[in-house]
């Protein structure tokens, strides 16, 4: 696991410190897992800067209610080439309310809000040749 200091938005880790969470590398970013669920991904990279922020693992059925809580929430353009809504949503880093939105999101995670977090699909094993 990378050092806490190398993870973008380290205040998020502080807010979640009461939980037993793991940080795993994913797409050159940092995925936060609680138990078997992936909750969020923290992304701050030079490419596709419009996709920097906190990616939320959720389902489309929850987008409308989450959008009320996070008005700046949007689909992640690089996951669909900007052509469709994605299950994954994000709070953009450049949003004026980024830190307060991140804090509220962490509160949802701490309260085990069912709208946040997904159990990843099992990886398919490579068939032997």
Explain what you see.
- By secondary structure, the protein is an alpha+beta fold.
- It has one domain.
- The protein contains four helices and six strands; from the N terminus they run αββββαβαβα.
- Strands 1-2-3-4-6-5 form a six-stranded antiparallel sheet, covered by helices on one side.
- The protein is globular, with a radius of gyration of 15 Å.
- The N terminus is likely disordered.
Biggest sheet: strands side by side, in what order?
1-2-3-4-6-5
Distance between the termini: 33 Å
**How many structural domains?**
1
Helix and strand composition category:
alpha+beta
Rg over CA atoms, rounded to whole Å, is 15 Å
Residue share in helices? 10-25%
Q: What integer is the average pLDDT?
A: 92
Overall geometry comes to globular
What are the segments in which pLDDT stays under 50 over at least 5 consecutive residues? 1-5
Order of helices and strands: HEEEEHEHEH
Main sheet attributes: strand count, strand direction, barrel closure:
6 strands, antiparallel
> Which percent range describes the beta-strand content?
15-25%
Number of strands: 6
Q: With helices defined by DSSP (H or I, 4 residues minimum), what is the helix count?
A: 4
Topology, element by element:
Elements: H1 10-15, E1 21-26, E2 29-34, E3 37-43, E4 53-56, H2 63-69, E5 74-75, H3 77-80, E6 89-92, H4 98-110
């Amino acid at each position: 696991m990378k050092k806490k200091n190398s993870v973008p938005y380290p205040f998020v880790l502080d807010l979640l410190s009461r939980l037993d969470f793991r940080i795993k590398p994913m797409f050159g970013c940092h995925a936060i897992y609680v138990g078997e669920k992936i909750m969020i991904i923290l992304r701050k990279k030079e490419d596709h800067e419009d996709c920097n922020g906190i990616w939320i693992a959720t389902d489309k059925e929850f987008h409308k209610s989450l959008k009320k809580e996070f008005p700046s929430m949007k689909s992640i353009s690089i996951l669909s080439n900007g052509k469709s809504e994605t299950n994954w949503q994000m709070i953009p880093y450049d949003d004026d309310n980024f830190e307060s939105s991140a804090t509220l999101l962490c509160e949802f995670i701490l309260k085990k809000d069912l709208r946040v977090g997904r159990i990843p699909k099992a990886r398919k094993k490579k068939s032997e040749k």
